[in-house]
Amino acid sequence: MVTLTHGNARVLVAPHVGGSIAAFYDENGGAGMEAPFHWLRPATRAAIDARDPLGMASFPLMPYCNRIRDGRFRFEGEMIDLPSGTGQLRHALHGHAWRRPWTVEARTENSLTLHFLHEPDTGHGAAHDAAPGGKGWPFRYEARQHIVLDDTGLSVRLWARNLATRPMPFGFGHHPYYPRTPGTRIAARVRAMWEIDAEVLPVSLNAHPAVDALQAGLVLDDFDLDNNFSGWRREALIEWPQHARRLMLRASAPLDFFVLFSPPDIPYFCAEPVSNTTDWLNLTHAGAAERIDVGGTVLAPGETIEAQLAWLPERG
Predict the structure, then answer these.
(1) Quick one: a GO biological-process term for this protein (predicted)?
(2) How many domains does the chain have?
(3) Is residue 30 very low, low, confident or very high in pLDDT (cuts 50, 70, 90)?
C-alpha cells in the first residue's frame, strides 16, 4: 500500500490490487464531523487482504469499460474471444487491468505513477494473457496512471499506448464507489440514457426521467439504475446534505460517457467517467455507430491516448 498526503487529505493506493485507489479521505472531519471523512467508499481490510478490486474505492478500466456481450466481438474480420464465466458472468467485465498488479514507477509525498504492461504472448497461464485465437486480449499495450493529491483534490491522469503491430480497439475510465447516505444526490448534464436488458446490456438509447432528474439533482433513493448515459458534459456534482459536503467529479475528453449504478438498499453507489458505452464493440459492429456515438477508439501501432479525471471536494 502507498499513502499520499497533502495537508489534511490522505489517499491510499493499492498497486498490487489492480492499481486501485483504496481510500480518499480527510484525516480530520472538521467541526461536528466524524473523523475521518471519506469522499470515496473506503476499502475494507478483508477486500485488501483478498486483493479484491471490487472492494476498493476506485479501480482503472482498461482496455474497455463495463461489459462485452458473451465475451466476444469481431474486429477487422477476427473474432476476439475474452475470458468469461456462466450466466451474467459470461459477459466479459471491465477489461483486465483491474485484475492485475501495477508497478510503482515513481512517487513523491503527494503523487504516484503506476505502470501496467499487457503481454498477450507471455504464457503466464492466466486466461487474459492467452495468445491470439485463445481466450484473451490479443493486443500488446502499456498504460500509466499518474495520481496526484493537492490543494484542489485528487486527480488521475490515464495514459495508454498501443505496442502491437496492428490497430487495437481501446476504451478506458475509472470505477469509483461513493458512500451513500439518506438524501445523497448527484447532478450532471447528459443527453440520453441507454435502456438495458435483463443482463444489464444496452439495447436502446432514449429519453428517460433520470436524464431530467440528473439535470436538477437526482436523489439516489428515487431511482434504481445501472445505466450508461451519453452526451455527458464531463462534470458531476455529488452532495451529502446531512454532512454539508459536496464533491465535484470532472473529466476530460474522451471520457464523454457516464455510468450511474444506484441499486436500492446498499450503502454506496457508483458514478463512473468512461470513454465508451457498455458493449461498444458489438454495437459498433452492428452498425449502431453510424446512428449514435458509442465512444471508444482504435489506436494505430505506437499511438497513445490519455485523459484526466479529478475529484474536487467542497467542504462546508
Answers:
(1) carbohydrate metabolic process
(2) 1
(3) low
